[in-house]
């Protein structure tokens, strides 16, 4: 018996800035995890990943990450992905610094 499919989001890094980005349902790359397309079908997830990997002029390192539906859109399931939503932690500026204000 096969295991149930865990919903996914497509994530990558922006080619120029290096920021973590997420593929939205309307084919944009967003820096907000909550705007990502939550994909609940395995075949569709693979198709979206293939489409993302073709965008080498915009992103690098695309992969599928486990997620769940939350009150403000998709939420990461694993620590690594939750950490990636907060951005670099070694800069005195950026996403993590802005959240400490």
Describe this structure in words.
The chain has 101 residues and is α+β, with helices and mostly antiparallel strands. The chain has one domain. Helices cover 24% and strands 29% of the residues. The protein has a 5-stranded antiparallel beta sheet, sandwiched between helices. It is globular. The termini are far apart.
Shape descriptor reads globular
Rounded mean pLDDT score: 89
Order of helices and strands: EEEHEEHH
- Strand fraction: 25-35%
- In spatial order, strands of the major sheet run 3-2-1-4-5
Q: Helix coverage percent of residues?
A: 10-25%
Q: What is the number of helices?
A: 3
The count of domains is 1
* End-to-end distance: 50 Å
Main pleated sheet: 5 strands, antiparallel
Q: Tally the beta strands.
A: 5
- In the predicted model, the low-confidence regions spanning at least 5 consecutive residues are none
Structure classification: alpha+beta
**What is the CA-atom radius of gyration, in angstroms?**
14 Å
């Amino acid at each position: 018996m096969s295991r149930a499919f865990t919903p996914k989001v497509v994530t990558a890094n922006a080619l120029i800035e290096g920021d973590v980005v997420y593929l939205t349902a309307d084919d944009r790359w967003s820096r907000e995890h909550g705007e990502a397309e939550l994909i609940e079908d395995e075949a569709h997830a693979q198709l979206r990943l293939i489409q993302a990997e073709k965008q080498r002029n915009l992103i690098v390192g695309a992969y599928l990450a486990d997620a769940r539906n939350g009150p403000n859109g998709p939420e990461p399931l694993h620590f690594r992905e939750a950490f990636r939503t907060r951005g670099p932690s070694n800069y005195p500026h950026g996403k993590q610094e802005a959240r400490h204000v």
